Amino acid sequence: MTPRETSRRWRIALAGVLLQVALGAVYAWSVFRVPLVTRFGWSIAQVTLTFTIAIFALGVTAFFGGLWMNRSGPRVVAVTGGLLYGAGVLLASRSDLGLWWLYLTYGVIGGAGLGLSYIVPIAVLVRWFPERRGLITGIAVGGFGAGALVTAPIAERLIESVGVLATFAWLGAAFLIVTVACGTLMQNPPDGWRQAPAAAASRGATVDFTLRQALGTWQWWGLWLLLFLNTSAGISVIAQEAPIFQELSGASAVVAAGMVGVVSIGNGVGRVFWAWVSDSLTRKGTFCLMFVLEAALFWLLPGLSSPAILAVTAFLILTCYGGGFGTMPAFAADYFGAKNIGSIYGLMLTAWGFASAFGPLLIAHMRESSGGYAGALHVIAGVMVVSALLPVLLTPPGRDGGRGPLGAPLPVRQ
Questions:
Q1: pLDDT tens per residue across span 153-175
Q2: 3 HSE (CA, 13 A, CB side)
Q3: How many CA atoms lie within 13 Å of 221's alpha carbon, on the beta-carbon side?
Q4: How sure is the predictor about 409, in pLDDT bands with cuts at 50, 70 and 90?
């Protein structure tokens, strides 16, 4: 590889990370919750639904972004997604028109932009860095996890100085500029770009599956389920962090809010750390380890009362949550090849959308029915124990005699 090629791919990687940081600002949604409730009298549930709509839209449109990439290239998809995302947040500044406008702009339009742009750096970088698929996709989506850390304090200061609706306008304009600028740098490597080293290639696909072929394997659905289970567990904590901390430790609302900020760092750290681990430990081993760790942590959580220990425990849970997003793109590329990973993994992200509804609703329902969080957290721990068995059962398609769509033989790994 020439110095120019090295510089080029790292420039694209940096643009991909910055793009993800701007997109990850969606995780700072809780900053807007109280100001919107206070100004318009909407309920907490009504305001929170905006976030759920945005994440669900992300999970759905990421698939279409992957398909579009195959036809038009990554640049046009990333730029279009950036325009929609920035415009959606900016237009949310007119939410005095009604709650429906907030859902339409920030939720649907902004969420659609999130999905289109989110899949691009993942699909592009997994092809530019075949020798470190786990690490590079972890770094990329780690930017998404860190987005709230950058945006939350800025948004809080803007809300204090100009109000919540004007804050949407300022942030939307900033997101539009950053995402479009970074999106213009997204491009695939040239034909004939170097292959992964033998050690990495030996565990990966020797041919590239089409989306249809991938959907014809039980392994694609197994990976979808892995992502769904891991995301459901982590996002159930994200949805109830502050109330959990207050109930278990007796911490004040202010202290609990500070704990949430510290714990959120785990989301970004886990995306890089576990993805890096997966390059050596294997993707299967990494998911097994994450599920076992989550099972233990969820089981212990209800018995903890120290705010510091609670924060550390939740931090570790959030690293596993982020680790799923950092590791899964490389896992999918290992099994199905990197060429069509945009559509293959893009459709897999529907697991994120469904989990964003299932996990928070499950823990909220169990909290209401039992009067406490202990039962719900122990149930999640049990689910994680069972989930740890699933990665063990997964084998690359073609090694188990599987067949593709309409009974056609699958490409066989050597």
A1: 888 889 989 999 999 999 999 99
A2: 0
A3: 6
A4: very low
Q: Most distant CA pair in the chain: distance in Å? A: 63
Query: For the whole model, what pTM was predicted?
Result: 0.78
Residue 311 DSSP symbol: H
**What is the rounded CA–CA span in Å between residue 318 and residue 323?**
8
The residue assigned the tokens 């059962």 is 393
Domains and CATH numbers, the chain: 1-188 (1.20.1250.20), 209-395 (1.20.1250.20)
- State CA 23 to chain mean position distance: 10
The pLDDT tens digits of the residues spanning 231-270 come to 999 988 887 777 788 888 887 766 776 777 778 788 889 9
pLDDT given at position 257: 67
CA-angle at 326, arms to 322 and 328, nearest 5°: 115
CA 292 from centre of chain: 20
Q: Which token pair is 25?
A: 């600002």
Number of other residues whose CB lies within 10 A of the CB of residue 38: 10
CA 369/CA 327 separation, integer angstroms: 35
Of residues 122, 103, 115, 118, the one with CA closest to residue 58: 115
Would the pLDDT of 201 be above 60? no
Amino acid at 143: G
Do 110 and 54 meet the contact criterion of CB atoms below 8 Å apart? yes
